[in-house]
Amino acid sequence: MQSKLLTQEEACITIRNWQKGGLRVVFTNGCFDILHAGHVRYLTASRGLGDVLVIGLNSDASVRRLKGPNRPVSCQEDRAEVLAALGVVDAVTLFDDDTPENLIGALLPDVLVKGADWPVDRIAGAAAVLASGGSVRTVPLLEGRSTTGIIETIVKLYCPGSADGQG
Q1: What does the DSSP 8-state code read for residue 4?
Q2: How far apart are CA 164 and CA 145, in angstroms?
Q3: Is residue 79 a contact partner of residue 5, using CB atoms and an 8 Å limit?
Q4: Average pLDDT, whole number, for the chain?
Q5: Bridge partners, residue 52, by sequence
Q6: Sign of the CA dihedral running 24, 30, 31, 32
Q7: What's the burial of 9, exposed, middle or buried (CB within 10 Å: 0-12/13-18/19+)?
Q8: Residue 115: pLDDT band by 50, 70, 90 thresholds?
Q9: In what order do the strands lie in the sheet with 91-95?
Q10: Rounded to whole angstroms, how far apart are CA atoms 45 and 113?
Q11: Fewer Cβ within 10 Å of end Cβ, the chain: N or C?
Q12: Residue 161 has pLDDT above 90, yes or no
């Protein structure tokens, strides 16, 4: 599993080798803070669009900037390890920016994937992938599944009377 956890430089080299070997590389990204069935279905569908799946994982600092000071719930090392343990995932690399635009521009996967809630023209890295001859795809999300929803349920069940879970 450790061999699936790559630095950005290692990811670039690995992707180029896979592409030279004729493999179709699929890339997606996210925080993947508390892994749930929606994530698993999304990653499985993404992997089905090619031969190998690479995940760009938001660093802890990036997640905090995007989701607020109480996130992530799971640290980046744990999130990366959980993702790498999935059979549909071939590589995981961290990025610290708010979007994976720079990472995608460096990796240039054959297929860039996001959830169907993202219009293609707003997907970070889409222009670079399309300009390099790749494609951008969206896959349906599993309705009613989200990390935020899970956290809200936990707070509601275990911290009654407290909107923020602090008392």
Answers
A1: G
A2: 20
A3: no
A4: 90
A5: 25
A6: negative
A7: exposed
A8: confident
A9: 91-95, 52-58, 25-30, 111-115, 135-139
A10: 9
A11: C
A12: no
